[in-house]
Amino acid sequence: NIHTYDCSVLDVCYDNVFYEGSSTTVKGGKNLRGYKMGLLRGILPNGGYIEETCMDTAKTHDLEMSRDFLVNSNSLHPGDYLLVDRGFLDIELFKELNKKGIKVIIPVKKNMEIYNEAISQAKKIKENEWRIHPNKDRKGQSITLVKSLGMTWLSDKDKTKKPGNIKLDYDINACVIRFDISKNKDILSDNEILTSDNKYAYACIITNDTTIDCNDIVKMYE
């Protein structure tokens, strides 16, 4: 089964202090009062449905609100896929989900070692090993698979060990997406997950499922 998870802020009247358990925060430069809801959805061929929810105050970070909820979810089963955004880039959460047999698919940020290693390796791949993006509407985009990146995303504890002493119970593959800048100028504004050279921009989506190819990764996440 395929699941998605994301969080939304539910705002209420800012001047009414009597909303029980609400908090104030700033979003998009605007002060607001309210709550935050996390929604785990099951994906069907033509849509999806809400399986489980969690709630907290509006100022609570998405990851901190969601960590235990996701690890202890009754809806996520071994072999299932969980699609989340970069707000849930946490190696400890990733490892806990991996232990449960959950296959995580998530984009990584350009300031992460795993991103830089994936892009570096992708640039060395021969041109005939790049595939056209499976979505025909994405003109000038191509994808490729980079394998065995587990050692480039480690817990703080593992980072203190010598490489020969690190025992990982997971590995990570990446789908690298390459954008022809001349054909994708309108969608290359996200500086958090994109780097670029003179001709191309690059994004990277990772997974702990090493049995699927780049086509599966990008189609599922999209």
Q: Your description of this structure?
A:
The protein is of the alpha+beta class and 222 residues long. The protein contains five helices and eleven strands. The protein has helices at residues 62-71, 91-99, 113-123, 156-159, 214-221, and strands at residues 2-12, 23-27, 30-44, 47-57, 81-83, 103-107, 131-132, 141-146, 173-180, 195-196, 200-207. Strands 1, 2, 3, 4, 5, 6, 7, 8, 9, 10 and 11 form an eleven-stranded mixed β-sheet that branches. A hairpin with a 2-residue loop joins β3 and β4. The model has no long low-confidence stretch (mean pLDDT 95).
Which shape, going by the Cα principal axes? globular
Total helices: the number is: 5
Compute the gyration radius: what is it? Answer: 19 Å
**DSSP strand content:** 25-35%
Q: Give the distance, in angstroms, between the N- and C-terminal Cα atoms.
A: 16 Å
- Class based on secondary structure composition and strand pairing: alpha+beta
Descriptive key words:
globular; alpha+beta; 222 residues; eleven-stranded mixed beta sheet
